[in-house]
Amino acid sequence: MALASSLRQLPARSATPGARTVEYLRISVTDRCNERCLYCLPEQHGGWASRESVLSYEEILAVVRAAIGLGFRHFRITGGEPLLRREISVLIGWLVAEPGVASVGVTTNGTRLAPLAEELFAAGLRRLNVSLDALDPDRYRAITRGEIGPVLAGLEAARAAGFRDIKLNTVLIRGRNEEDIVPLVHFAAEHGMPIRFIELMPVSLTEMLDESNFLPVGEVRQRLETVDKLEPLPDKLGVGPAKYWRLPNLGVTVGFIGALTDLHFCDHCNKVRLTADGKIRPCLGNHGEFDLVPALRPDIQPTALRSILVQSLSEKPPEHLFRDNYQPNRIMTAIGG
Q1: Domain total of the chain
Q2: What is the pTM of this model?
C-alpha cells in the first residue's frame, strides 16, 4: 500500500486550526551544504542559487526588523548548512542585539562547529540544534554522505565554549537508523542534551517517502517505553513543534515531531520561512511563496516589506499537504530547514 493511501486512512481531524500566533521566522542564509542527506539534498543536485541572488546580511536584517514590527520574536538561522556562510557570527550578533528579538538559534549539521563554536558564543548565540541521524559511522555516512567525527568534535567544542542549550535532531528512516535510536537516547542522556525524533517528510524527493522507509514517531515512543518510562512534559522546550517526554531513569528529555501522523500538527504552527533567495514561505508543505526581493532591491523599502509580509501571513495555509501525494517543487536546502 502506498504511504499516501495509508496516511489518508488516519482518523479524520476532530478540530480545525484555531487562531495561530505566528512569531517565529526561520532564516536560510545559504542553500549550499557540505553533506548530502538522503531526505534533503539529492545526490545529483547542482542547481545552487547564484551568489547574487542570495540575500545580504543587511537585507536579512531589514526583513527581521519588518517581522518584529508584526510581532515576530523568535528567529533561527538555517541553511543548507548555515556555518558555511562567511562571517555568519556578524549576522548573529546583529540579531541578538536587535530590540524586540527574544531568541536567536542556529540549526546546523555540526561539521563546522569545532572551529566556530567560540566565535558564535562570543557573538551572543546560545541555542544550537545539531543534526545527528546516527551514531554508527557507517550508518551516518550512508544517510548523510558525510563523516560523524567532525560532528562529535563540534558538539564537544560547543560545550567547551559555553553552550548549554543544545538539542539533537534525528530524522527517522526505517531500515537506515532504527538500530541507532536507543544508542542516540543514551548519548543524549550522557551529554545532557534533549533529542528530537522527526518523521520523514517529502521535502526533496517524493520517492524518498514510502511505506518501506517511513518510521512514525508513535512506533519510536513504543520502543523507548521498553527502555524507560515516558513522562509527558507539559511545557515546550523552545518555540518549535516538538512534543516532549522525560525518561526519568535515564535523565533525558526526548521530543517527537510527527508532521505526518499528528493530525493536529499544524493547529498551532507559529512559523514561516525566509529562503536564502528572498522568498517568504508560509508553510513548508505548500508551494506558496512571496517574493521580498522587489522590496529589498535596488533599495530597501520598509513599507513594502511589511505589506508583503502581511499578505504572506494572511495566506498561511491551515495545514500542510504532506499526506496527499505532495510533490515538492524545491529541494529542502533551497527552502531552508
Answers
A1: 1
A2: 0.93
